[in-house]
């Protein structure tokens, strides 16, 4: 694995988010690009939405994950396949509140093309798993379900590795994927097995 440093929450700064947006421009079609102000408004609402991988100098963002708790209304819009996530506003992002369950949106998993296949995505995903487990164990916050809109074959592959299932093709020709950690039929993988164990103890 490539040597990296993972940051999240208050460690993430405006400059990191700017670099993440540059990764989006490399990786995604213009349709999915967001403005810096929009991303900062998300981050102001909930500063736990980003996990970022920095190079060994701790100056360059090599990859990032955006995983956001969202309103049920926005969750259903994304799940319907009729909406792309550029319509999400800060009011659609929710803060974590102890003892209150929420809905999750796996917005982005991006690694710079020059640094792919070096274990960076895996390390970020393992940290995300840890954070989801900690929300459940220490704050009694569980996700009713998690949705993702896979805009590439690579994105679909990564989500499948985590245990997401394709539920439909969107009207913008992407794959709508869903992960329900309460579902007994969810496929257990390296990336979700601890989460599944914790959710199984809680039950639904």
Provide structural commentary.
- This protein has six helices and seven strands.
- The protein is α+β, with helices and mostly antiparallel strands.
- α4 runs parallel beside α6 (193-202).
- The N and C termini lie far apart (37 Å).
Strand and helix layout:
Elements: E1 5-8, H1 14-27, H2 36-45, E2 50-54, E3 61-70, H3 72-80, E4 102-111, H4 120-139, E5 143-150, H5 153-162, E6 165-169, E7 175-179, H6 193-202
Parallel strand pairs: 4-5
Antiparallel strand pairs: 1-2, 2-3, 3-4, 5-7, 6-7
Helix pairs in contact: 4-6
Key structural traits:
204 residues, alpha+beta, Aminopeptidase, 7 strands, 23% strand, globular
- By secondary-structure content and strand pairing, the structural class works out as alpha+beta
Give the helix tally.
Answer: 6
Using the CA coordinates, give the radius of gyration: 16 Å
Q: Are there runs of 5+ residues with pLDDT below 50, and where?
A: none
Could you please say which CATH topology applies here?
Aminopeptidase
CATH fourth-tier homologous superfamily: Gcn5-related N-acetyltransferase (GNAT)
For the sheet with most strands, the description reads: 7 strands, mixed
Q: Into which percentage range does the β-strand content fall?
A: 15-25%
Terminal CA distance reads: 37 Å
Provide the spatial order of strands within the biggest beta sheet: 1-2-3-4-5-7-6
CATH class: Alpha Beta
Number of strands: 7
Order of helices and strands: EHHEEHEHEHEEH
Number of domains: 1
Q: State mean pLDDT (0 to 100 scale).
A: 94
What fraction, in percent, of the residue positions are helical?
Answer: 25-40%
Gross morphology is globular
CATH architecture label: 3-Layer(aba) Sandwich
